[in-house]
Amino acid sequence: MSSPSQLSGRDVLRQAVRGQRRDVALGALLGSGHQLGEVMVPVVIGLVIDRAVTGSDTGALLSWLAALAVVYVGLALSWRFGAWSADRAAAQAEHTLRITLVRRVLAPGGGAEEGRLPGALANIATEDAKRVGAVSMAAMGGISALVGILVGAVVLLRMSVTLGLVVLLGTPVLLWLGHLLSKPLESRSEAEQERAAHASAVAADLVAGLRILKGIGGEATALARYRTTSRDSLQATLKAARAQAFQSGMVLALTGCLIAAVALVGGRLAAQGDISLGQLVSAVGLAVFLVGPLETLAWVNAELAQGRASATRIAEVLAAPHNVTPGTAPLAQPVRGAIRLTGVSLGGLKGLDLDIAPGELLGVVATDPAHATDLLRCLARQADPEAGTVELDGVPLRDLDPAELRTALLVAEHDADLFEGTLRGNVTAAAPDRSDPGQAMTAAGVAQVAQTLPDGEDTAVSERGRSLSGGQRQRVALARALAAERPVLVVHDPTTAVDTVTEAAIATGVREIRKGRTTVLVTTSPALLSVTDRVVLLEDGRITDTAPHADLIDRHETYRAAVLA
């Protein structure tokens, strides 16, 4: 298997088919049996004419008709089970690709989402995965079609070397021409999927911000933007459809020429007495039969062209470099929660030095919100510092695996989304097994929220928590972070949509539930800052002072402007 950085569309296709080799092999075997049955039908009919009809032999007629019935039964069964196996292989390959893509997008090292809107990633994980999965079905169809052509050619060779050579020499030429004709379809299919993904991404983006757009009266601008994007997608789809129609039409015309050549040669041979009447009927029947596998090969070419285009897009996501490289160092055990930043520079942070003691409740006030975001990215290891180090209990974060780091250190971002499910299910999403989220729900004020809802903690929550108010969503997100019970918790502005009375109660609750465990509150809320052990003032990417909240209020105009404005 290729490494992620070297993964190509061809590798994705190969792995998709190889992963379903059992179903592919079974489907190809049954499909080949079906094609063999299709070949036998005109052969048996020719034998009926030569050995029963011509000699008026009723017994032979009944015997050959019975043989024909057996052929039809085998043909039908092999088709049914072959099609089932093909569908199963395609569905399984599609499912495996979706899981692989989602695993890569959710990988702690990140990177797959860079430069892509969520809607585009969703399109790749659905439509592109479906097209690549269909390649497994196309592979089986292609194998069985080739078997049908080969067997048909052998039968024709036994009747006449000339007829057999027409098929054996004409089929490779037809396949080569079909491959050349599929090239424009491949490039246009890739463009079609790119445009469709972009249109889906823009639509998802607009729907997510619909309330804001209506609030600012931006519906017309948003509609114009989507209309342009959708028109581009339509044009790309039409170009791909034209390319597919041209490819299918040309291959069908070429196939017709080959079939006509077989029929013409067979007719001349019969007229010269080189083959019997029954053999002529069989030859014409085989010529008509060949339309099926040759059309299948044309379809296979089209599916492969579209599959290659989609596989290339999937490979780009799977091969996207991680934002951070997983380390191999183990976490210190037990995790005490001591954090040290030494000379950290990232984005707007400039040589940041900060020591956070185990069990400390620290407040961080940043005069520039972007600097707060940069600090959170460092602590969550979404990005490694451009200079300096961040340590947890003396172990540099860059030496840790991000997934392992998050078992000890959790960064709860301000815009954290909720999930579709129940209120309680959202709170316990990251909680240890068999833990009681009651304390976390009380501390974050979610118990009060549950009392106002029809089904309490079991009330259904819609996608992204849109069925809840902004303040309710924030409290549920905070409760989820508290219920995770991480040794180190970093929370960013968890109460901006909460009233002052509730905010004061939450501040007290957070201090109580996090007692003895390291907690960092990145916020400008006076209520939250007042319960911290000390507050760090971050100005221009540097720490300019650190002291209890009340002391900073007294001696810093900048601090007062940040937290009291």
Helical fraction = 55-70%
Please tell me the overall pLDDT.
82
- Please summarize the sheet with the most strands: 6 strands, mixed
| Number of H/I helices | 18
The secondary-structure class comes to: alpha/beta
Multimerization status? single chain
Total number of beta strands: 12
Terminal residue distance: 58 Å
Any idea what the shape is? elongated
Strand content: 5-15%
| Main sheet: strand order | 6-9-10-3-11-12
What's the helix-strand series?
HHHHHHHHEEEHEEHEEHHHEHEHEHEEHH
Q: What value does the Rg take, in angstroms?
A: 34 Å
pLDDT below 50 for ≥5 consecutive residues: which ranges? none
Descriptive terms for the model:
Type_1_exporter; 565 residues; ABC-type oligopeptide transporter activity; ATP binding; transmembrane helix; Multidrug ABC transporter ATP-binding protein; 6-stranded mixed beta sheet; single chain; alpha/beta; 4-stranded antiparallel beta sheet
How would you describe this structure to a colleague?
With 565 residues, this protein is of the alpha/beta class. 64% of the residues lie in helices and 11% in strands. The protein has helices at 9-18, 21-53, 58-105, 118-159, 161-208, 210-216, 219-271, 277-318, 369-380, 402-405, 423-427, 438-443, 446-452, 470-483, 500-513, 526-529, 549-555, 557-564; strands at 339-346, 349-356, 361-366, 387-392, 395-396, 409-412, 421-422, 460-461, 488-492, 518-522, 534-539, 542-547. The strands form 3 sheets. The chain has a 6-stranded mixed sheet with strand order 6-9-10-3-11-12, sandwiched between helices. The protein has a 4-stranded antiparallel sheet with strand order 2-1-4-5, with helices on one face. The model has no long low-confidence stretch (mean pLDDT 82).
